Amino acid sequence: MASFTKWLGAGLGFTFGGPIGAALGFAIGSFVGGLSNNDLSEEQRAYQQRVGSDANATNTQSVDFEMSLLVLAAIVIKSDGKVDQKELDFVRIQFIGMYGEERANNAFKLFKGIVKKEISARQVCLQIRTNMPHASRLQLLHFLFGIAKADGFVAESEIEEIRKIAGYLYINERDYSSIKAMFHDASESAYQILEITKEASNEEVKKAYRKMVKKYHPDKLQDLGEEHLKGANEKFQSIQTANDRIKKERGI
Q1: pLDDT in tens, 172-219
Q2: Which InterPro entries match (predicted)?
Q3: What is the CA 56 to chain-centroid distance, rounded?
Q4: Mind listing the domains of the chain with CATH numbers?
């Protein structure tokens, strides 16, 4: 337990409070009997105070991003009325890939408790968008679509839940549709990823590609740490693949 509280307490910032903190507290209480504020480091409490005084904070802690992922993933997984083992396995595999086995095991302990609690997506997203920059929120959405597709089929209820989450996170329809298209193989998906239509001119295609490269460049997530850059690179690769597909189709 000492290593668990050290991992959690040393990194939590804005997610220590609010609805995310409540979900984490419920999960912790389900297997360790609660987490005392005395278990948290002085450094973490000082960070929490700074975040609480700055509603426009833009430097998201790695663990804050991790906890936000856990809570939103639980909401999406339960949206179709069941908890699918393939989706649970996907979350675990993704976390092992990002954080290593020990940290992922700690996170998954929390996750199994979080999925048992009813959580307001709107309240959680309000907390996230107040404290997390736009690029990080886009990365959250990308991860959620990956979870939804983990069982080989994206249910309509999952799509609707992710759409609501996107709206709550102030992610506009074009960005939402672009990320959604990254998980579909339809012929028009390449255009949707670049946020254009098939009627766009070659010059408009080039302009859209440059815009998307700037928006989704992994450098925008450097503050989240190396562990989150894999997902950012996957998203960036989708942009490049879409552009290559369009260029091949048009012979440009």
Answers
A1: 999 999 999 888 766 678 999 999 999 999 999 999 999 999 888 888
A2: DjlA_DnaK_co-chaperone, DjlA_N, DnaJ_domain, J_dom_sf, TerB-like
A3: 19
A4: 1-171 (no CATH), 173-252 (1.10.287)
